[in-house]
C-alpha cells in the first residue's frame, strides 16, 4: 500500500463527507492490497476508527486553532485536519512532526500548494498548544446533540455519557465457540498458536474475548484509554479456528439473544433476517445439530454469506432460503418452536465498530424502521406454533425500535411475555423478565435489545 495516511484520509473523507461506510471501505482497501502487512493495516484502521469516532470532539478542538470555520473548509482539507489532530492528541507514539508533515503532504497532493500553508499553520498551532478548552456533554463523547439528549432522556445523562465513551474505544472482538465441534479451552489454545490471546467470559465460557495480540505496533498506539493496534501471526479471519468454523466472530450481546431463547435439540427454528447467519448457527449449535433451522434473508448475496458460514461450521440441520420477511409465507404458519426476529434497525448499539452510525441516525429513519419491524413481526407471530416462542432483538438503543415494539407484540399481536434469565448469572444480579436492554459496554459488548414471548397453547391468532 503506497501511503497509509493517504489511504486512511481517503476512507475518512468518503465516510464523513460522502456517506460511505468505513468498515466496507477498509475491507475493500485491504482486499485490493493483499500484500499490506498487519502492522500497516492496524495503523490505517486505528486512524480511520479514531478520527471518525471522535470527529465532533476533534472539531471542538480544531475551532480553537483555526481562524476558518470548519463548515467553510474544503471537505478533504477538513478530513485531513481531523486526522492530523487525532494523531497529535490521541496517538502518543506518533511524533508530532510526522503527524503535521504527512498531513501537509496530503493537502498539497490533493488540493495544491494554496492550502498547504493553512494546514501547516493549523496543525503546528495544535502541536504547540498546551492548554485547551475541554468539551463537555455531547461534544466530550462526540455524539450529536439530539442523539445525546435522546439517550439522556431514555437512560439518564450518566449512562448516555458512558455509552458515548464506549463508542470511542476500539471495538471489542468476541468469538463464539461452536461447542458441538470444539471445547472452549481447545479454541483458546489454537488461537494462541496463531498469536492471539483469548479470555472466556466469566459467565459464558463459550464466548471468547480477544484480549490482545503478541507484538505492539508502536506508531499506531494510543494512550492508555484509546485503541491500541496490535500484531498477531495472521489476521483473525485467517486463524484456523475461524477458517474451519470452530468459532464464529460474533459480539457477545448477539450471542446472548439465542442463549435467552434456549432452542432445544430436535426443535424447529426459523430465523427471518439471518445474514450473516450467526444466530442461526448458534441455534444449530445449542440444538446439537438435531432438528431444523431455516435461515432466511432478502437477497442472494446475503444468503450466500449464510451458506459460506454454514459450510465452515458444518451444521447439517441448517437450511438457507431466500425470502422477503415482509411477505407472509403461508407454509410457515403455526410451524416453528422458535422464531428469531433479529430485525433491521438503526444499529446504534454497534457504533463502536461502525462509528459513523451515530452521526447519521435521524428520528424519521427510526420511525420508518420501527414500522418496517412491525410489518415483519405481524408475520413472525403467525409462524410460531402454539406453545412456541418468538425472540425479538435488535442491535440498537431507541425506544421506538425496542420497548415500544415489544409492547406491540404483547398488546397488539397477542403473544405472552416469556421471562428469562441468562444461565450463569448470579441470583443477586440476574434480572428476570421478558425484555432486557443491554447498553454499550454491558457485559463487554455492543448495545443490544432482547425480548422473548410465547404463543398460547390454545387458540390461533
Structure write-up:
With 461 residues, the protein is an alpha/beta fold. The chain folds into three domains: 4-130, Orthogonal Bundle (N-utilizing Substance Protein B Homolog, Chain A); 174-248, 2-Layer Sandwich (Alpha-Beta Plaits); 261-454, 3-Layer(aba) Sandwich (Rossmann fold), CATH 3.40.50.150. It contains 17 helices and 14 strands. It has helices spanning 4-18, 22-32, 38-53, 55-62, 75-90, 96-111, 116-128, 145-155, 157-168, 184-193, 240-243, 252-261, 278-286, 300-313, 357-360, 363-383, 403-411, and strands at residues 174-177, 196-200, 207-213, 215-216, 230-231, 247-249, 268-271, 292-297, 318-322, 336-342, 384-394, 416-417, 435-438, 448-454. The strands form three sheets. Strands 7, 8, 9, 10, 11, 12, 13 and 14 form an eight-stranded mixed β-sheet that branches. It has a four-stranded antiparallel β-sheet with strand order 2-3-1-6. A two-stranded antiparallel ribbon has the order 4-5. It is globular. The relative contact order is 0.10.
Amino acid at each position: 500500500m503506497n501511503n497509509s495516511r493517504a489511504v486512511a484520509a481517503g476512507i475518512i473523507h468518503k465516510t464523513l463527507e460522502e456517506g460511505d461506510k468505513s468498515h466496507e471501505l477498509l475491507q475493500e482497501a485491504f482486499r485490493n492490497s493483499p500484500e499490506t502487512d498487519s502492522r500497516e493495516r492496524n495503523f490505517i484502521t486505528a486512524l480511520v476508527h479514531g478520527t471518525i469516532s471522535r470527529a465532533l470532539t476533534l472539531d471542538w478542538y480544531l475551532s480553537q486553532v483555526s481562524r476558518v470555520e470548519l463548515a467553510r473548509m474544503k471537505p478533504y482539507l477538513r478530513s485531513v485536519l481531523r486526522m492530523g489532530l487525532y494523531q497529535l492528541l490521541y496517538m502518543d507514539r506518533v511524533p508530532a512532526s510526522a503527524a503535521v508533515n504527512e498531513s501537509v503532504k496530503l493537502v498539497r497532493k490533493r488540493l495544491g500548494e494554496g492550502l498547504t500553508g493553512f494546514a501547516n499553520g493549523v496543525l503546528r498551532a495544535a502541536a504547540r498548544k498546551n492548554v485547551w478548552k475541554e468539551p463537555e456533554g455531547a461534544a466530550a463523547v462526540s455524539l450529536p446533540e439530539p442523539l445525546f439528549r435522546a439517550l439522556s432522556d431514555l437512560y439518564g445523562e450518566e449512562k448516555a455519557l458512558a455509552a458515548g465513551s464506549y463508542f470511542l474505544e476500539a471495538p471489542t472482538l468476541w468469538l463464539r465457540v461452536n461447542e458441538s465441534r470444539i471445547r472452549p479451552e481447545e479454541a483458546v489454545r489454537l488461537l494462541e498458536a496463531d498469536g492471539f490471546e483469548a479470555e472466556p467470559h466469566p459467565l459464558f465460557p463459550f464466548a471468547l474475548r480477544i484480549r490482545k495480540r503478541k507484538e505492539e505496533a508502536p506508531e499506531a498506539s494510543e494512550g492508555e484509554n484509546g485503541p491500541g493496534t496490535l500484531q498477531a501471526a495472521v489476521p483473525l479471519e485467517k486463524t484456523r479456528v475461524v477458517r474451519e468454523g470452530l468459532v464464529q466472530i460474533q459480539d457477545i450481546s448477539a450471542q446472548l439473544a439465542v442463549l435467552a431463547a434456549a432452542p432445544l435439540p430436535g426443535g424447529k427454528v426459523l430465523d427471518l433476517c439471518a445474514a450473516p447467519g450467526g444466530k442461526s448457527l448458534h441455534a444449530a449449535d445449542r440444538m446439537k445439530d438435531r432438528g431444523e433451522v431455516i435461515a432466511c434473508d432478502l437477497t442472494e448475496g446475503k444468503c450466500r454469506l449464510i451458506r459460506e458460514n454454514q459450510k465452515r461450521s458444518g451444521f447439517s440441520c441448517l437450511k438457507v432460503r431466500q425470502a422477503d420477511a415482509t411477505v407472509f409465507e403461508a407454509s410457515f404458519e403455526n410451524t416453528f418452536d422458535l422464531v428469531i426476529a433479529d430485525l433491521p434497525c438503526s444499529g446504534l448499539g454497534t457504533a463502536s465498530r461502525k462509528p459513523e452510525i451515530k452521526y447519521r441516525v435521524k428520528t424519521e429513519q427510526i420511525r420508518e424502521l420501527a414500522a418496517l419491524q412491525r410489518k415483519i413481526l405481524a408475520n413472525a407471530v403467525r409462524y410460531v406454533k402454539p406453545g412456541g416462542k418468538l425472540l425479538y432483538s435488535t442491535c440498537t438503543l431507541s425506544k421506538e425500535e425496542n420497548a415500544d415494539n415489544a409492547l406491540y407484540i404483547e398488546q397488539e399481536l397477542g403473544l405472552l411475555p416469556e421471562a428469562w434469565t441468562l444461565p450463569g448469572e448470579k441470583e443477586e444480579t440476574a434480572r428476570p423478565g421478558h425484555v432486557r436492554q443491554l447498553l454499550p459496554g454491558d457485559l463487554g459488548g455492543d448495545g443490544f435489545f432482547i425480548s422473548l414471548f410465547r404463543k398460547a397453547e390454545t387458540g390461533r391468532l
